[in-house]
């Protein structure tokens, strides 16, 4: 597994534990107490470390190459998933995947951005950066769910919408804008989860929801820290300063009513235990569905609209 810079002390402690175990086996010495002490120290150190991460460190975890992707969550959380392809205008953008499924027996329309774990997969999924056709595919599935009264779940992990010439030629900004408008009109429960990177309009185009959640080590921002640093200081190496200033992590976002809650990750991040992470995400989704199912269609629509209209209030 890829080790992040700030995690190297944990690896060093683990190497010492492994060395003691090896000595114990080879020499026949009873080192159980020493090993147990080191293991407890390692566990305590990890708990303290991950409870006090800086935004720049959470950023690294959110971008971890082994972090669960959309299909990992679907496979660990859903039953009977049937993928629905294409925007019905000529393209099936693989950076956004969606379809019908059941979660604990409940029918849902589940849609998300998709990243790969290898170069080949990342090329297939365009590194999780959707094109306009992807947002139009998502919109088609939103409308299908709305027509048949099926709740919508979105799982978002994207560095942003694809910024290439082909996307601009096919109206990237317009596709996202239409999604924002049409999601605000939906009369079914909509739950959005930022599972890793939630960057710019590329994320927001799938996140106009009644409930918006952030995984513990994910981030949600109007611009990437690197992009922000390049604009403000003309220096992308100041991304760590930008990450701090942007208030991109769950505690700050909750304080400003941008998200509805944070979802606890396994110790060290979601990539350490896919099943446990999926179970926690599933629990949150089912609780939210229970709450939202008590609202009328008009209440769902109006509460979602008001939720986003209130964002951005400030005092001078």
Which tags fit this structure?
eight-stranded mixed sheet, 2-enoyl-CoA Hydratase, Chain A, domain 1, 14 helices, 2 domains, alpha/beta, 316 residues, 49% helix
Compact overview of the structure:
The protein is α/β, with parallel strands linked by helices and 316 residues long.
Q: Would you give an account of this structure?
A:
Strand 5, helix 9 and strand 6 form a beta-alpha-beta unit. The longest helix is centred in the first third of the chain and has 20 residues. This protein has 316 residues and is of the alpha/beta class. The chain is built from 14 helices and eight strands. 49% of the residues lie in helices and 16% in strands. It has two domains: 31 residues; 250 residues, 2-enoyl-CoA Hydratase, Chain A, domain 1, CATH 3.90.226. Strands 1, 2, 3, 4, 5, 6, 7 and 8 form an eight-stranded mixed beta sheet that branches.
Total count of domains:
2
What is the helix/strand order?
A: HHHHEEEHHEHHEHEEHHHEHH
User: What's the CATH architecture name of the largest domain?
Assistant: Alpha-Beta Complex
Q: How many runs of DSSP E, i.e. beta strands?
A: 8
CATH superfamily of the largest domain: 2-enoyl-CoA Hydratase, Chain A, domain 1
List unreliable stretches of 5+ residues: none
Determine the N-to-C terminus distance.
Answer: 47 Å
* pLDDT averaged residue by residue: 94
Strand content: 15-25%
Shape: globular
CATH class category name of the largest domain:
Alpha Beta
The radius of gyration is 21 Å
How much helix, percentage-wise, in residues?
40-55%
Major sheet description: 8 strands, mixed
Report the CATH topology name of the largest domain.
2-enoyl-CoA Hydratase, Chain A, domain 1
User: Structural class per helix/strand content?
Assistant: alpha/beta
Number of helices: 14
